[in-house]
Automatic annotation (TrEMBL):
Keywords from the UniProt entry: Glycoprotein, Repeat, Secreted, Signal
Protein name: VWA1 protein
Predominant localisation class: secreted
Matching SUPFAM superfamilies: Fibronectin type III
Occurrences of domain Fibronectin type-III (ranges): 1-90, 92-180
GO cellular component: extracellular region
Length: 184
């Protein structure tokens, strides 16, 4: 029943604390900042009616020192402190490259390959259209071959990184198959 954090992400967390004050009896001063850089502390006032608050725009993989000071006009409450470390950033694939394009297949590769990725999904379908096929690729690999395509067709290819944390990030690229030989 003390100040603590929930819903921690790479750039935010929610602070929850016991209801010590009310709207009438005071407000809270909230001070927080990176533990390694006390000069960058921020302070904000929070209404006495609140018992939780989301802090956002934080740096990933950073330990924050948080102090909640109840400013009561009735009782003295000691400050409550906690430490919260944000998660590592989940980076989306930053490039998707299409190569070795033939009439019925092309090669898809992507970067970077990250330890935090469990698997990749490669979705592809002709443009325009809404028939999409999916390939599952192990998280250790960064390329795959897409086959059984129609010649002379533009495809939309989306690579989705599925992180061990459950998050997903995607990036898309367009690919064109070559014209097939006549008489096929």
């Amino acid at each position: 029943n003390r100040l603590h954090a929930t819903d921690v992400t790479s750039s935010s967390f929610r602070l929850v604390w016991p209801k010590l004050l009310s709207q009438e009896t005071g407000y809270y001063s909230l001070e927080y900042g990176p533990r390694a850089d006390p000069a960058r502390r921020s302070t904000q006032q929070v209404s006495g009616a609140h018992s939780s608050l989301v802090l956002s725009d934080l740096a990933p993989e950073t330990t924050y020192e948080v102090a909640l000071i109840p400013e009561s006009n009735v009782h003295y409450f000691p400050p409550q402190t906690t430490r919260v470390t944000t998660l590592a950033e989940e980076i989306s694939p930053v490039q998707v490259l299409i190569s070795e394009s033939g009439p019925r297949s092309f090669h898809v590769s992507w970067a970077p390959v990250l330890d935090s990725v469990a698997s990749y999904q490669v979705l592809y379908g002709p443009l325009p259209g809404n028939s999409v096929k999916v390939l599952q690729v192990d998280g250790r690999h960064n390329s795959t071959v897409v086959e059984h395509l129609a010649p002379n067709t533009t495809y939309l290819v989306t690579v989705t990184a599925i992180y061990r944390s459950g998050k997903e990030k995607s990036l898309s690229a367009k690919a064109c198959t070559q014209e097939g030989e006549r008489g096929q």
